[in-house]
Amino acid sequence: MRIGLWTLAGCGMMLAASAASAAVTQDSFLLRNTGDLVDLCSAPQTDPLYTAAVNFCHGFGVGVVRTLQDQDAASRSGRLFCFPNPAPTRNEAVARFVQWANADPSRLQMSAEDGIATYLSQQYPCPRRR
What we know:
Layout: H1 2-9, H2 13-18, H3 34-41, H4 50-74, H5 90-103, H6 112-123
Helix pairs in contact: 1-4, 1-5, 3-4, 3-5, 3-6
């Protein structure tokens, strides 16, 4: 499960090549919505704020995933998501999240936390118990 945690936190390096995004601005760090997180996680290496953006993406992703995992552990109603074994790599997970978010413009308007939670629950559903 820890591998999955780091997987989501993700590395934005692969995203620079795989996702086109607007230039990162200081306002992107306010994380008004999932679109801002997508901009940070997919900042091109040529962006002056690249290092800060990718580091913010990593830290925010780790924080959200850990919080969701802690909530799942305390919940009696079941888990929100279950990472596969083996879990996708960091680069794969972030690239998939960005791709998922960009596939439906309404997702970009969700809060960043809800965007991650919705992505995880849709992409990594837990097996149903019999």
